[in-house]
Amino acid sequence: MISREEYQGRRIKSDVWGGTGDVHFQDLFTENDLGGRLSMLSRVTLMPGDAIGPHSHTENGEVYYVLEGSGIVTDDDGEYRLNPGDAQFCADGHTHGLRNDTDAPLVFLAVIIPNH
Are 90 and 55 in contact (CB under 8 A)? Predict the structure, then answer.
């Protein structure tokens, strides 16, 4: 299955999980396209100052993989800088969030993996 950029769904959510600003999603495939193997596979952009608030995962886990830019990930109780090529995994029962504290866009791949 090929997913052409011009046909990929785009959506914007504000103040995600108590964060700030807007989160721009480019859905590469839908959950249905992926046969339920993944709940989400999206290219996500946080503009400077925007953030996804810390949130817990239940019944799934999530991976953030940074493509461009840099930001601060909250991983349970710690904070760490993520740069291009860095990844973070939030397993079921744990919390994470991500904020762009720079003056350039932060672009990352977000993958939500359901527990089966």
Answer: no
